[in-house]
Design goal:
This protein is an alpha+beta fold and about 180 residues long. The chain has one domain: Beta Barrel (OB fold (Dihydrolipoamide Acetyltransferase, E2P)). The chain has 3 helices and 13 strands; from the N terminus they run αβββββαββββββββα. The strands form 3 sheets. Strands 8-1-2-13-12-9 form a 6-stranded mixed β-sheet. The longest helix is centred in the first third of the chain and has 17 residues.
């Protein structure tokens, strides 16, 4: 009985942890959200200095007020294919957990939408896609970077756990390189 109560308490806490304000943005006509507490700033596109021998989704680095910040393209990270950047394309500078401290990275998105206050009752768990192997890559589908699905205005917004979009190894490499 006490184990059931503990399990329910953990489930309620997990739901409450996901509730809050999210900055929403689009990628390939889909809506995504990142917890507002992870956002440092939103900037328009600016020149990005490419760095050789980095993964395709790492666009390079920018100089943001004297600080060098790595920039990734979320479209490429999620294997959506690249598009030409336009006047709505922007960089969201986020702070992610990187070893003992946090690091700032820029994430290129198609456009920023709005800040939404999402209640826990509007958030569902990430759907499980089973344990079958993905035939394209020969691996299990990895959805650890998805915090949940917000049911909003007849649609769904994918809430990202920005700390898990990159693997620990990739974060370490970015931290060491930049």
């Amino acid at each position: 009985m006490t184990q059931q109560v503990e399990t329910m308490d953990q489930a309620v806490k997990a739901m409450a942890d996901r509730e809050g304000k999210y900055l929403t943005f689009t990628l390939a006509n889909e809506e995504y959200g990142i917890g507002i507490l992870k956002i440092r700033e939103i900037i328009g596109m600016m020149p990005i200095t490419t760095v050789p021998r980095t993964p395709e989704f790492v666009k390079g680095v920018i100089n943001l007020r004297g600080k060098v910040i790595p920039v990734i393209d979320l479209r490429l990270r999620f294997a959506m294919g690249s598009i030409d950047y336009n006047e709505r394309t922007c960089i969201i500078v986020v702070e992610i957990a990187g070893g003992q401290d946090t690091i700032q990275i820029g994430t290129v998105v198609d456009s920023v939408s709005e800040v939404l206050n999402i209640k826990s009752g509007e958030i569902e768990d990430t759907p499980t896609f089973g344990t079958k192997l993905d035939t394209t890559f020969g691996t299990k589908l990895d959805t650890d970077y998805i915090l949940g699905m917000a049911k909003m205005e007849g649609g769904v917004k994918i809430l990202l756990d920005i700390d898990r979009v990159l693997s620990a190894e990739e974060i370490s490499q970015l931290d060491e390189t930049f």
